[in-house]
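In response to reviewer comment 3 from the previous cycle, which asked for concrete evidence that the modeling workflow produces usable outputs, we include below a single protein chain processed end to end. The sequence was submitted unchanged, and the resulting structure tokens are shown without manual editing.
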Amino acid sequence: MFVTNAGDWYAARLFLGIAESGFIPGALYTLSRWYTQDELTKRTAWFFFGPSMSSAFGSLISAGCLRLEGHGGLKGWQWIFVICGVSTIGML
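The workflow returned the following structure tokens.
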């Protein structure tokens, strides 16, 4: 939301990439420790099914956010980050 130029965007993407780099290996390791061998296949399938569903619905939500251009002094792409951030914090 606070990115105003290309340098800010690259820095934000760098830090986001560093923060997320170990998520999938760590999540799969955690799944393998919590579930038995028989359950693990189904749980792993659900784990990889989630991003597909979020992409499908996220695109629709993003299209709606882009229509908020100018509201609250923010551009449409900034609204996408605000709504994603608030929903993520709300889920915690």
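The helical segments are 6-20, 23-34, 37-66, 76-91. We consider this sufficient to address the reviewer's concern, and the full set will be provided in the supplementary archive.
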